[in-house]
Fold this protein.
Amino acid sequence: MRFLKYLVLGACAVFLSSCAATIPTELSKARQAYQQTSQGPAAQLVPAELHKAKQALDRAEASFSNDPQSYQTKDLAYVAERKAMRAEALASIASQKRDAAQANKAYQTSQSEVIEKTKEDLATQKTEATAAGAAAALEAEQLARREAEKRAADAQAELAKIAMLKEEARGLVITLSGSVVFATNQATILPAAQSRLNQVAEALMSTDKNRQLIVEGHTDSRGSSDYNLDLSRRRAESVRAYLISRGYPGELIETRGIGEARPIADNASPEGRSNNRRVEIVVRQGAKQ
Amino acid sequence: MRHLKLAVMAVSFLLVVTIAGCASGPSFSKSSSESKSAIRAAEEAGSINTPSAAYHLQLAKEELARAEALAAGGEKEQAASLLTRAEADAELAIALSHEQDEKMDAAKAMERVRKLREENQLPIERSNP
């Protein structure tokens, strides 16, 4: 009885294994190909083509049921495998087309971004250029100021060599000795004094040439005060005229006759009187507006 | 009258046989024509330039030749069945060839975007579709 059971089981095993072996290779491949394709993007991208592949596989399966080893079954299975592969290729084509379309759209978007970026770059460059221009203007202004200060300092140093200089609240005072510049009781500039006045004029001209000057004539106390006042005024006028002849703007030069009113030394001694006979050129602070 | 009846029966039988023959499947010549047409289309699609497509084109040609040999030997039904393989391989070759073309087009389009963004110093990752 036990032997009979084993015999039946063995016969079933042999039957089943023989059935499995009879599946044509073409059909196995077709089933595998369809399974692979149906699990890929074909179901979403090319459902109609996948359906055709399924129909082809169904035909092969039907033929296999009727006549497993016939050439029709093998040919139908072969065609079904190719249709599954074709569906997969067509899905890939659809995917590539989608990628290309998206890339083309991205290209257009990128072009718009490039245009925007170019506009921004231009705006930035313009701003930077404006800032650079302002910085250059500031630097030029600072340079000009430094040069003007240097010229003024040089002029002052030059003046210090040829005349007495003194910084006062009313400005820089250049004092020229009257005995050097004028003959006694005269308002005409001595030829020997012209070179010194030339140097004074050059020093004043080397500055901005827009400083206001006050030329003051001073005398000692000998003679009448009216006479001295008139003499001092005429001497101041002479110096003004000379400076104008050297190119200094006349409208910037003011003259004053002080006479004996503001001595700087004792008129009792000859030396003191000599110091009192003088011409003072006051260079006012700041340019005339 | 009896001869006429026999003649009608004979003609009817021949018609039934002919119709039944036609209904059994497409003729070999028609299938052969369709297979050749598919092979020609695969060649025109440039299948020869794509290895996988060229392989299936070659299979299609071999299957066509085998089918013609079978038909010449009188095995027209089996030959017609074999032609379906040739046509399926030829159609697959066309699809594979087009797939390669589309891949190249997509790659070119993406490269064009990448290059444009790179040249203009735009973030590259945003260009990827």
